[in-house]
Amino acid sequence: MNDAASSSQIVRCRWAGTDKLMVAYHDKEWGVPERNSRKLWETLMLEGFQAGLSWSTILNKRVAFRKGFAGFDPATVAQFGSNDVDRLLGDAGIVRHRGKIEATINNAQRCVELIDEFGSLAAYIWTFEPADRDSAVAPTPLPSQTPDSIRLSKDLKKRGWRFVGPTTVYAFMQAMGLVNDHAVGCEWRAICATERKSLTLP
Prior knowledge:
The protein is an all-alpha fold and 202 residues long. It is built from 10 helices and no strands.
């Protein structure tokens, strides 16, 4: 994304605020259509950890999360055992929630299965792209879940995934650009819309 975004003249979504980490996340990541399967899996897992917390908390812990979860490589995390759970529970750099840690290991195993079936996580995830993707106006207020996030959530749960409720899944869809929820007037709305139209999957 455009490094000129640091200018005070740039119009952004209000939620980005003035925190440098949040501003960088808004400008370079949020809403950008993502085709990388590892990044998709990382974000879905972090959205699960975020429940009940602020996203800025997760961003501030993301480096530690990546270290603790082997760079969010699903094939590696799928091999984690009880010693890894104990190690992660002792890591003050991450959110130490046993259920979410164990769910992440489970979801890595389910992700490997899904990749075997679809070829990549991206190929699977993007089948849930909303039909009205080119809507010119973001809904106001933004919903916490949609029929598409409910559909994806149900399918993931059917496949054995955990901590993937429809609200978590919708936040993931916003972050990964399956929907474009940048505010009208935000300069990244048009940028993300253009990138979404040109998206090609591996």
